[in-house]
């Protein structure tokens, strides 16, 4: 039987391929047309037609065929990649970059691609990167020359948002390890004007420094490694600092418990901290400590336990450059200047100096919580602690 109605799309596509090898483009297109009639919903048949149309010098027809493929399968990777290439041919790289961005979002790993597709994918990356650079240059030039914006100093979050839009940075999210309270804003460094008690804290820097030195003299070197995972626990990024004195602490409060001996030799520091809005959660908070980091030591990127509290830093010993990153922003510590940050956003620290760096660290309630919420959160945490305690387990 010679009727094409009983022939499969696969056999017709095979014949079309043979015709193309012989240079018979018209015959190949005719066979693919028959295959399309036989299997109109087969995306591979329509994709083969697109390839033949492009090879025959009909990019507009090829683009129409690719659109039909995508109507059948919107995530057909080769069709998306071909659409970008055809639009680049017809309308230029700037128009194609919009398609290529979507293509790259679903790109399989390079080892899963045939060499030709891998090369086309790399070309797509280059087109997108060049377009991003051109877009950035265009926007910055416009901002500099616009009468409304040229004299304005862009705040960090505007600059960060521009970098996110350009794909040069990623949006930062809260990643609490223990408890996430919903609908709290993800603010890496909080505005200073939200904490009127900064003035009192910063003015007390010399007193706190003196008591830090007194504590070291009277108690001996009681700083203990901050990272202390037990044997057999997965230490992940903490392998280098686990049980290491390179990052060590002297606690004034620990998991809600006042450390009386340390507070005894640091009475003014303890009294000041007690007057501040430290988080109060029995078994969890507050925690207040002197944190010491050895020379040329990095604290790796990590996140904290809960966004219901924020972390305050006050530098006490800065023998040289020391940096701290929260999200996309990196700041140097400056003597006499405190800051508050959300430690559920990824953060890390460096002591680039040749001597130890020491800061005061303590946690406070998130100021976006109401008094009612503070009571409820404290009761919730206490209940969870009690549940695991009666079960003989660990709460945190």
Short description:
The chain has 396 residues and is of the alpha+beta class. It has helices at residues 9-21, 25-38, 43-55, 59-72, 77-91, 93-105, 115-145, 156-165, 198-203, 205-219, 260-265, 267-275, 371-390, and strands at 224-225, 247-254, 257-258, 288-293, 297-302, 309-317, 322-326, 329-332, 339-341, 347-351, 357-365. Residues 1-5 have low confidence and may be disordered.
Describe this protein's structure.
There is one protein chain. This protein has 396 residues and is an alpha+beta fold. The protein folds into 2 domains: 4-133, Tetratricopeptide repeat domain (Serine Threonine Protein Phosphatase 5, Tetratricopeptide repeat, Alpha Horseshoe); 192-390, Jelly Rolls (Sandwich), CATH 2.60.120. It is built from 13 helices and 11 strands. The relative contact order is 0.09.
List the helices and strands and how they pair.
Layout: H1 9-21, H2 25-38, H3 43-55, H4 59-72, H5 77-91, H6 93-105, H7 115-145, H8 156-165, H9 198-203, H10 205-219, E1 224-225, E2 247-254, E3 257-258, H11 260-265, H12 267-275, E4 288-293, E5 297-302, E6 309-317, E7 322-326, E8 329-332, E9 339-341, E10 347-351, E11 357-365, H13 371-390
Antiparallel strand pairs: 1-2, 2-3, 2-4, 4-11, 5-10, 6-9, 6-11, 7-8, 7-10
Helix pairs in contact: 1-2, 2-3, 3-4, 4-5, 5-6, 5-7, 6-7
